[in-house]
Amino acid sequence: MSKSKYVINSSKLKSTREREKLTLEDAASSCSLSAQQINSLEKDLDVGFFNEHFKEIAVKKYITYLGLTQSEILIPEESNHSKEAEPSEQKLTPETNFQKLTNIAITKKKSTIISVLLVSLLLMLALKDPIETADNLQENEITTDALSDNPADLSLSDEPILMNEHDDHSHYSPNPIIANTEAASVNNLNDCITLLNTDNFQNYQTKYVPEKPNNYIHIKSSLTQTLCIQSGNEEAKSIIVTESEPLNFKGSAPFLVHINEPDKVEVYFQGWKVWLNPNFQVFKINSYRDPALTSLE
């Protein structure tokens, strides 16, 4: 993770939260963050953050939630080290000037090497995934313009959703539903309840630090389909999705979705594209779980 231009006044964050008698879970839920991320902000740690950019977004959210100002919490790195940066008084000589120039040259060379290594690493990661055509990339991209045209949207996103394919964890039965199985008709709410009440489903959970909140899923379909969706413990709903009308369904994880033709559908959750196993028609989509969170509970 790159070095931040700010130093976080983490002790003030923690003392303010404790003064308001708020738990880590209270703050995390209100800020759409995990308890581990709140704990890291209160200790100025990097654990739980994808990169420095997302850490900065998270701390600004937390500052606003606590009713503080950014100037109280975010201390510019230059100000924090101003005293350390002040050179001690000494007589400058040609020898000392030469030594300073040498040190600067070495530092710049190290920075150049590090930059080259970082660029190489990013290229290697990018080449791990299959190369997509320009048409595919354009087809998979979700923008705020596309979402704003959808009358069925229940919430909107500020940033484009990133796509990443994760390992599949599925519940199998002796006779799994195959993708080319005849589609079950959905006529009413009872049909949805029956279709979702099964042990034969793909169990999906995001594996990495989320870039989006876990209170909605976005669904695109290349054909008109009737989907059954259940949010948390709420009632199942029957919703029609078309190519021209994608869906942002707001609720709480886990989301349970029945899709007749999953190969014609794209689902996005917490900033990641969900890989739909074509052997299933029911998908249970759950949110990222921080492995270090158990130490705080």
Structural topology:
Blueprint: E1 6-8, H1 10-19, H2 24-31, H3 35-42, H4 52-66, H5 70-73, E2 74-76, H6 77-80, H7 82-85, H8 94-128, H9 134-140, H10 144-148, E3 169-171, H11 189-196, E4 201-205, E5 216-221, E6 225-231, E7 237-241, E8 247-250, E9 255-258, E10 265-269, E11 272-274, E12 282-286
Parallel strand pairs: 4-12
Antiparallel strand pairs: 1-2, 3-4, 5-8, 5-10, 6-7, 6-9, 9-12, 10-11
Helix pairs in contact: 2-3
Please count the beta strands (DSSP E, at least 2 residues each).
Answer: 12
Spans of 5+ residues with little confidence (pLDDT < 50)? 85-92, 130-167, 172-183
Largest sheet: 6 strands, mixed
- Portion of residues in beta strands equals 15-25%
Strand order of the largest sheet: 3-4-12-9-6-7
What's the average pLDDT? Answer: 74
**Gyration radius from CA atoms, angstroms:** 25 Å
Shape: globular
Distance between the termini: 27 Å
Domains counted in the coordinates: how many? Answer: 3
Percent range of helical residues: 25-40%
Q: Structural class of the secondary elements?
A: alpha+beta
Question: What features would you describe in this structure?
Answer:
The structure is a single chain. The chain folds into 3 domains: 6-80, 434 Repressor (Amino-terminal Domain) (Orthogonal Bundle); 90-128; 139-293, no CATH class. It has helices at 10-19, 24-31, 35-42, 52-66, 70-73, 77-80, 82-85, 94-128, 134-140, 144-148, 189-196; strands spanning 6-8, 74-76, 169-171, 201-205, 216-221, 225-231, 237-241, 247-250, 255-258, 265-269, 272-274, 282-286. It is α+β, with helices and mostly antiparallel strands and 297 residues long. The chain is globular and about 80 Å long. Residues 85-92, 130-167 and 172-183 have low confidence and may be disordered. It has 11 helices and 12 strands. The protein has a 6-stranded mixed sheet with strand order 3-4-12-9-6-7, covered by helices on one side.
